Amino acid sequence: MNDAAREAARARRWTAEEEQRVGKQILAAEMRAEEAIREIPEAREVLYSGRRRAERTRSGRVTRLETAIRLSWQLSETDMRWKLPVRRARAAWAEAEGLRWSLAMSGRRIAHGEARKLAGPFMDEADLVQEGFIGLLRAAKRFEPSRGIRFSTYARWWVRAQMTRAIDHTGRPIRLPGCAVEQTRNLRKAMKTFDDAGESYTLADLAAEVGIDLKRAQFLMSHGRTLSLDEPSEDGGSMKRPMEAVLADESVEDTDAMVAEHQELERLMDSFENLLGDRHKAVLRKRYGLEDDEFRTLSSVGDGMELSRERVRQLEREALVRLRERGNIREVA
Fold first, then answer.
1. In contact, 89 and 30? CB cutoff 8 Å
2. Distance between CA atoms of 19 and 326, rounded to whole angstroms?
3. Taken in order 43, 45, 46, 49, is the CA torsion positive or negative?
4. I want to staple 194 with a disulfide (CB 3.0 to 4.6 A). Which of 107, 201, 213, 257 is the partner?
5. Statement: the pTM of the whole predicted model exceeds 0.85
6. In sequence order, what E strands does 173-320 have?
7. What is the structure's pLDDT at 176?
């Protein structure tokens, strides 16, 4: 657990009354800012004109208020009449921004908790926590205390939505909508549940488990995966060839890369044998499948070695750090 995670774990959870109180203080500060610049014609045009549809959240109004304050500040540079009201508006807006930040950071436990669940090969936990903070700020901008919903409950959805969107943008060669990413993840979870139980299943069973129709499930399973280089591909002729054959120049061998990879592998194996103790070696062998090509979870490694999951994680980290720092290894999986 890093320092940020420890700080989030120690942070006191706000009560519902505190969330409501700060939410109302934000609304009051925004109202004072709006009242201060209401008499400026250009600001009034931004605040009360141009709405194309009914607003279901506060986000649109807050954005217009911020735009109006910025415009009013620019006008006050040339028109001294608006100096004082703009100054009051900016002070009230700064107060609202500070309260909004405090409200968002009161939910940083949520960001760390969701990041631990979603961390994977595409994005690590630290990057996801940062995306979670963005989600918390978006939630604070939209939070309405009058609805009687706790901010911590309301913000969780925004945090998860921001994280899944970031994973989608970072990890997929073809972007899918956020709802499709979530449904694809649920389909894979259902597959794992059936596999772990040793039960046979069909795509219709997975669709029913997730709560979507069969055609939707077929679409997600066909488009929600990464293209394999071994998959046959049309390259202009009548014969299908693997994508790797289309992309690769088979007439040229990258000798330098092969030599560098071989040297790096030798250095890694020497460091593995000379720098690590028996327990560290055993953890890495089981964790990364160095002997049987079977990747194992921290829990399964711990069960086999009669160690806790946390102790296995510590041993793994110690071993990798030692290999990187003392083994002259550029990168270790």
1. no
2. 49
3. positive
4. 201
5. no
6. 232-234, 240-242
7. 60
